[in-house]
Amino acid sequence: MNVTKNKILSVFFQYSIPSVLGMLAISSANIVDGFFIGNYVGDFGLAAINISLPIFSFLFGFAFMLAIGSSVVAGKLIGEGEIKKASIIFTKTMICVTIFSFIICSVLFLNIETILHFFGADEYLTNVAIQYLSIMLFFIPFLMIGIVLDYFVRIDNRPNLAFIALLSSALINFILDWFMIVYLQKGIFGAALATGISQLTLLIILLPHFFSKKATLRFVKPIGSYIQIAKACYNGASEFVNEISIGIMTLIFNYVMIKNFGVEGIAAFTVINYLLFIGIMISFGISDSLQPIISKNFGAKQSKRIEEFLKLAFISTSLVGLIMISLIIFIPDKLANIFLEDTNHKTKQLVLNFATFIWIVFLFDGINLVISAYFTAIHKPLQSMIIALSRSFIFPVFFIFTLPFLFDLDGIFIAIPMAEFITFIIAVILYRKFNPRKIT
After folding, report:
1. Mind telling me which residue stretches traverse the membrane in this protein (predicted)?
2. CA gap 251, 439 in Å, rounded
């Protein structure tokens, strides 16, 4: 498929559908983890996962920064006909992510207990989280490599293969979660082992593509300076900042929730994160699929096509938002019951308190994500970073410390929706300044 010439609707759906289904596969894997842990391990299991999130945010942030930044550069080079240079970028990126992931995960493994105490975990929660993290840190390097491969496979015109890899990983995770947690009763340790093994699937399915005849990108001799990768990382820095910001924001929210509501507060926040995760990952799948499309059309100077792709993305993410709003408003109790046992009355009530306000997020998050992805694709990392920081760190943290003075404990629940709304205003202003016609 030639994304700079083929029919716009056809290109959009052939890229967005596999991307959305892939993100749904990822979402389902996390939702399945939450279901089994919430129902067969309990509140402390959910809290242990949430207290570990800042570590995952840092590691995934680095992988996304490399994957998105480098793949966009490679996509632009392919659009310009520079296949050899694109393959060099791909090879250097794989070298960087492999070396970094194994080194940093080893360092984190040796300092797990210290890090968890720093995150505010008490002795019991630390012991539960260590069971989870000690296994996950062994497998995460393979997931980080798989994430980078996933982006380059899509740039290499194989979005369906990327989806198959993500779907296979999710299915294996579901089967292994049941086997480890329910059948063998291995608790949080079994959940980590199931997730880790399923993540290897990405590597096994995606890596052979780059040795096949269908591949445009190939492993080549990594000649030249690695400054190219540093520049690519800068272009993808908004994704790193976004993930890190989510980790820091989660850390602060965990502190506020445990201070005001105890461990049940962290568990409730974890359940809300699962609900947010479903809708946001679908919108992220749509916005993420734009990056290879827009980067190639940007290289070919096709501003009108970029506008049309963006319109389709805005409409699609808005529809997703309306569906999520309907579910959260009309059946919040049933959504909470998916992750919590009937005896967890306090945690369930906190989830319902959150749900009263959290639906507002879905009015704005899809458009924010699309505009942020657009800026990354056209090599405007600063603008993308502003949006990412605003929605995932600056405003959530600001509002969680200020709104309780005005609305008491309800201010905690309003913080994230208010942050998304203010970010929406900023994103629209930036988009008007750097719309496709102006930048090409």
Report:
1. 12-32, 44-68, 89-110, 130-149, 161-181, 187-211, 232-253, 265-288, 309-331, 351-374, 386-406, 412-431
2. 38
Distance CA 188, CA 204 (A): 25
- 158 assigned to some structural domain: yes
Single-letter code of the amino acid located at 121: A
Does some domain include residue 3? Answer: no
Residue 362 lies in a domain: yes
> Mind listing the pLDDT tens digit for each residue in 269-316?
888 888 887 888 888 889 888 887 888 888 778 888 888 999 999 999
Summarised one tens digit per residue, pLDDT across range 373-399 is 898 888 888 888 899 889 888 898 899
Among residues 400, 383, 106, the alpha carbon closest in space to that of 255 is found at 400
Whether 342 has a pLDDT exceeding 70, the answer reads no
Radius of gyration from C-alpha coordinates of the chain: 21
Which residue type occupies 365?
D
Does the reported pTM lie above 0.85?
no
Domain assignment of residue 2, yes or no: no
Give the C-alpha separation, 190 to 316, whole Å: 37
Q: Are 400 and 250 spatial neighbours (Cβ–Cβ below 8 Å)?
A: no
Mean pLDDT of 225-248: 76
Q: Given phi > 0 = left and psi -120 to 50 = alpha, else beta, which region is 379?
A: left
Domain residue limits at 67: 8-439
| Domain tally, the chain | 1
CA quadruple 154, 157, 163, 165: dihedral sign: negative
287 close to 23: Cβ distance less than 8 angstroms: no
